[in-house]
Amino acid sequence: MKTIGRYRVTGLLGKGGMGRVFKAELSVVNKIVALKCLNPHEHMERLLGRDRIEVLFHTEASILAGIHHPHVASLLDFDYDALRRPFFAMEYLCMNIGSLIGETYETEKRTRRLTPGRAIQYIEQTLEGLARLHYAGIIHRDIKPYNTLLTDDDRVKIIDLGLSRLRGEIRALPETFKIGTPFYAAPEQEERPEAVDERADLFSAGVMLWRMLTGELPPESGAPKPPSVLNPLLGTVWDETLLTGIQRDADKRYQSCEAMRRAVHEAYQQWRETLERACRWTMPEPRENGRSGQSTLRKNPEKVSMAKARPFFGLDEWYRPNRNVLSRYEAEAAETVKDICHGIIWQQSGSPYPMDWPAARQFIKKLNRDGFAGICIWRLPTIHELLTLIYPKTVLGDYCQPSIFDSRRNRLWSIDKKSYTAAWYVDTELGFAGSQDMTCRFYVRAVADA
Q: Measured in whole angstroms, how far is the alpha carbon of residue 43 from the centre of its chain?
């Protein structure tokens, strides 16, 4: 097994122009970390030269070491490998906003939308992290969904500061060298990356919020459609806020993180008021998940590869259910909920903390040892069972229906594996299935036959 310094490498997480990021374990304490190692692409090395790239790499590590903020990734270690190549260690986090919305290398393809509450939580935290960087005179220049990691408790951590710059710093770069990511980089950054200010990061944040709420990217030229047209569930209260955030003229967009955060927060409050008015006039329908389907659901575990997942689980291109299965819930005593359509009983809440997949199986064993709710046949649910917990929101009134389950625990492990090291999970709030490394930490909601 490959080692880098004191770390045992267990997998490749990603690679970019400057280096590679590995999943690794500090074996002496069994701690999983992300290792970023300098290993530049030959094209970047040819453009910038090895010495310049090493300076950029050390600068990124120094920034992470000097910034202490809950929404900026922290440096854990810095060292050199056997070939004297530098590397640094960061906290390992499985999730990021890119994977959550289902963004792929074909960036322009539509993605999943987030609920307004989730999108606002993420963008406010991103802006708070950016405000800290800007206070230190640091302009990130590559804010995008895949550079915003998510912790177990759903907090944003900004990463990848390798191409950031200090305010007022001028570095001569080759004309062919582009900084930032297409669609997310501000127009002025594409033209003069060394002359941009903090407003370039705000443009990127504006595009990210636009994508989270509409599932689309704003057009690179011409007038964009109002967000209320792209996603009618938003109403018109978001239009001005989102359109200001993606203004191509830097003088017309938000001028500071705090100004943008206030505008976003106010738009969300207006949307909440609109929702509350709608809920006062709308009698919520009983929470039944669409057309009736099979009366029994698969309960035996399966190993399902990514290539076979969509047809096997019945998922669309965004890994959401192709159709919704009828479920009718009755809350019972001892924190359980019965699905009378399928003859199964769920935990109403679930595990108190997120946990990795092996720990999830131990949690089930403990429930059965303790006889939780008088039941000793609890098990991890299959993906087919978890998909019945999804309640899609197609009209504003769907937000009026309170969940019978604990809404704070919505990313849930299944018993189904993808491989020997990965398993499938379901995000019940956003309504999709996904797979992750078994060392990731999600909640558990146990199920039992009634």
A: 30
423 Cβ contact partners less than 8 Å away, ≥ 6 residues apart: 357, 413, 414, 415, 416, 417, 435, 436, 438
Query: Which residues 6+ apart lie within 8 Å of 223 measured at CB?
Result: none
| DSSP character at residue 222 | S
Percentage helix, strand, coil for the chain under 3-state DSSP, each rounded to 5: 35, 20, 45
**Strand 447-449, strand 344-347: pairing:** antiparallel
Interatomic CA distance for residues 128 and 265, integer angstroms:
13
Are 110 and 248 part of one and the same domain? yes
166 within some domain: yes
Looking at the fold, whether 59 and 113 belong to one and the same domain comes out as no
Q: Enter the tokens of residue 261.
A: 């955060």
From 166-180, 232-246, 359-373, 408-422, the region with the lowest mean pLDDT: 166-180
| Dist. CA 278–CA 275, nearest whole Å | 5
Looking at the structure, tell me whether residues 256 and 125 fall in a common domain: yes
Cα angle for residues 429, 435, 438 (degrees, 5° grid): 110
What residues does 425 pair with on adjacent strands? 413, 434
Cα(270)–Cα(13) distance, rounded to whole angstroms?
Answer: 40
Tell me how long the chain is.
Answer: 450
* CA separation for the pair 201, 184 (Å, rounded): 9
pLDDT digits 0-9 by tens, 372-424? 999 999 999 999 999 999 988 888 888 887 888 988 899 999 999 999 999 99
Token pair of 198, please? Answer: 């903090």
The band of 262, judged by pLDDT with boundaries at 50, 70 and 90, is: very high
| Residue 290 belongs to some domain of the structure | no
Residue 41 burial (10 A CB sphere; 0-12, 13-18, 19+): middle
* Start-to-end Cα distance in the chain: 47
pLDDT tens across 342-373, in order? 999 999 999 999 999 999 999 999 999 999 99
For residues 445 and 347, is the Cβ–Cβ distance under 8 A? yes
Q: Model pTM greater than 0.90?
A: yes
| Average pLDDT value for the chain | 91
Q: Where in the sequence is the domain holding 85, given as residue range(s)? A: 3-91
pLDDT band at residue 175, thresholds of 50, 70 and 90? low
Distance between CA atoms of residues 368 and 372, nearest Å: 7
Is there a single domain that holds both residue 49 and residue 135?
Answer: no
- CA-wise closest residue to 146 among 251, 273, 13, 260: 13
d(CA 86, CA 105): 28
- Does residue 212 lie within any of the structural domains? yes
SS3 of residue 119 by DSSP:
helix
